[in-house]
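ok, trying the design again with the full structure, not the truncated one.
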């Protein structure tokens, strides 16, 4: 499968990627735990059907020390015993934030309260930004049909 278009070959695409990378770096430099960031990236990418991002973020998570058991159970996190309460709160917020169009009320008060119970204000800001940024990356890659499978951990820096 070949992508429809390479965003890096257009001035507008290059500029958009530059700003998304800056937003991603802001989240990476925050106090939000790296393992939580990876879980959010993977779960949103699964929901959005972004093969490139699922490939990238599972490989990066594994490279960072994430276990295969946890990686295999992300899609079924509600029935898995391997995630902390904080991670569960982040995954719930991720699902509701990713599926905003599916819920007339958007993100529920319960999901927000649960996340706020486990993360401080800076971490919550980073979590919200992470959910928004990965959804933007997913949508760009799905629209241009960027295939997954060839990513190497750390490939993009």
């Amino acid at each position: 499968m070949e992508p429809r278009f390479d965003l890096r070959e257009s001035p507008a695409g290059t500029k958009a990627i530059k700003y998304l990378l800056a937003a991603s770096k802001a989240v990476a430099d925050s106090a939000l735990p790296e393992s939580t960031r990876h879980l959010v990236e993977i779960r949103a990418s699964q929901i959005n059907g972004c093969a490139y991002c699922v490939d990238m973020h599972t490989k990066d998570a594994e490279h960072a020390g994430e276990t295969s058991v946890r990686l295999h159970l992300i899609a079924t996190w509600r029935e898995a015993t391997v995630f902390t309460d904080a991670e569960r709160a982040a995954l719930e917020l991720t699902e509701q934030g990713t599926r905003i169009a599916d819920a007339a009320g958007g993100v529920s008060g319960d999901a927000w309260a649960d996340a706020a119970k486990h993360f401080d204000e800076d971490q919550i800001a980073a979590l919200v930004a992470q959910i928004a940024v990965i959804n933007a990356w997913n949508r760009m890659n799905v629209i241009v049909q960027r295939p997954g499978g060839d990513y190497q951990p750390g490939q993009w820096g």
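Keeping the full-length input from now on. Residues 32-143 form a domain with the AhpD-like fold (CATH 1.20.1290.10).
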